[in-house]
Amino acid sequence: MRTTIRLLLAGIAVSALVSGRGVAVPPPEPRAIVSGDAIVIPVAGVAKAALRDDFDNIHSGHPHHAIDILAPRGTPVLAAVDGTIRKLFESRAGGLTIYEFDVATERSYYYAHLDAYASNVVEGMRVKQGDVIGYVGTTGNAPPETPHLHFAITLLPPSKAWSKGEAIDPYPILVARGVTWDR
To answer: What CATH class does 39-179 carry?
Structure first.
């Protein structure tokens, strides 16, 4: 009996392959082709031309050391690089925030003022460029009428402290190597 069932199932599989009518399998989620040194602009649909360099501006009495990427509330926030979500954190200034470390743990990517985290995001999870990790908002000290992503990059110190490091201006990196990703 078992042999008969196995032969029957094998026949069905061969018939499906030959006829070209197999079991419907949903296609994988499309991914943009990103070159090795590219970085995803971390807000879905935002083009390079929409970016503004406000890295050296003074905000609340100190250098901004980030850029603000304006977008409607709820726009997906995307992982800029392959890496690991190291810290989900809520602060008075940044509101809902994410710290992502790159694969080599040399740089930290900071995403702040999020309206919400993506439902599957947890500390320690690996992410790929373009994965949705949160949504643009106005949490923390962001003006309620100006939803945006506060995006910063730092070179990590030897201690790998997620909130420390040397600030790097994201603007020239995003303009030179940024890829717009629609979600």
So the answer is: mainly beta
Q: Where are the beta strands (DSSP E) in 32-156?
A: 39-40, 58-59, 62-63, 67-70, 76-78, 83-91, 95-102, 107-117, 126-127, 132-136, 148-155
Least confident interval from 16-25, 51-60, 83-92, 113-122: 16-25
Helix or strand or coil: residue 22? coil
Q: Say which residues have a Cβ less than 8 Å from residue 135's Cβ, sequence separation at least 6.
A: 73, 74, 75, 76, 77, 114, 115, 116, 117, 118
Query: pTM score, two decimals?
Result: 0.79
Which residue type, as a one-letter code, is found at position 78?
A: L
In the chain, domain spans: 39-179
Task: Evaluate whether 180 touches 45 at the Cβ level (below 8 Å).
Answer: yes
- Residue 82 CB partners (closer than 8 Å, separation 6+): 102, 103, 126, 127, 128, 129
Please give the pLDDT value at position 167: 93
3-class DSSP state of 95: strand
